[in-house]
Amino acid sequence: MARPLILTPENTLPEDGLTGTLIARVWLPGELAGPVPVLLHEDGVFDLSPLSPTLAGLCELEDLAVRVHDSRAQRLCSVAELLANSGSERNASRPTLLAPADLQVIKAAGVTFAASMVERVIEERAGGDPQRAEEIRVQVRELIGDNLRSIVPGSENAQRLKQLLQEQGLWSQYLEVGIGPDAEVFTKAPVLAAVGSGMDIGIHPGSAWNNPEPEVVLVVNSRGQVLGATLGNDVNLRDFEGRSALLLSKAKDNNGSCAIGPFIRLFDQSFSIDDVRNAEVDLRVEGNDGFVLKGRSSMNQISRDPLDIVGQTLNANHQYPDGFLLYLGTLFAPTEDRDQPGNGFTHKLGDLVSISSRQLGALHNRVQHSSALAPWTFGLLAFIDNLTRRQRA
């Protein structure tokens, strides 16, 4: 039997509570039901749709952190009430939390940390077989180690290392994007497909080797301005991608495989891009079998600066008129055995996954097969129709 997933201010808000500028997205019930952007404040949850009916539109406004505080209009409920109705048990007659993204494209950067870069090389050489991975892990680390953070991607030292590894037959496409000049940036999920905190995440039923990826996610508008950050779980199928990098879309994009939340913390006097650069992102997985996995991703170990990755995402060759959310990658790659020795870690149904950071709060999800989740039906056509109907009312 699946354990309930309960959200509270204590297990969701940042260490400094509601001190920062926290915006989110909720589903409003009733005759004019639909999603609206909101401000989370000590006085309650406030509807921001008079400023903009979409989060993407909100992010295009100048002086956003100031304007959302000055526009507290309709109070919807308390923060505690919103969270209480956003776990696994939801009352359709009350507001409930959604992923803090609507029209923005959801992008992700891969292989941005040296340790996880080495793990990707191992996945590739193991062909997606977790039993071969440990043997290959020893061989690869003996030759290249995992302390590659001092190598600046695209530098002369990186080029020399590339030549050396090619001579030894160890060059990999993952090393190319890890220490080469061009970052790996891919589309993680369709617009509106992300799930929020308290919702189930999806693992493809054909996968036998998979894991969570705890990450910081930047919020960027169409002008390339980084406005704030949130947390994300870049749910990953290691066996699918290990068999072939051409299966990346199947390894990364399944029903419920993109979790973002619980809210966006905007940059203001209490939070900045330097806080992102120094963030510690903690992971905890609790299984029905009693297994507990803990991990941490330290952003100060990233190989590429977050703003460099933003610049490689939006530039003269790539525009995003509705803005985008950008997963920054993770240092964490679990190798701890869950069942049989040498098999490493993989999810089991019912796992509770918590991703947290001191200034960004905590994102909580429960693991299910992607095929068993409720079908995703509220896409762009439904969203446009919903906005039109509410505007006319």
From TrEMBL:
Domain Fumarylacetoacetase-like C-terminal: 186-368
KW Protein biosynthesis (keyword) present: no
TM regions (residue ranges): none
Family note: Belongs to the FAH family.
Record key words, sorted: Hydrolase, Metal-binding
Source domain of life: Bacteria
SUPFAM superfamilies xref list: FAH
Organism of this sequence: Ectopseudomonas composti
Protein name: Fumarylacetoacetate hydrolase
Example of a GO MF term: hydrolase activity
Pfam families xref list: FAA_hydrolase
InterPro entries referenced in this protein's UniProt entry, alphabetically: FAH (IPR051121), Fumarylacetoacetase-like_C (IPR011234), Fumarylacetoacetase_C_sf (IPR036663)
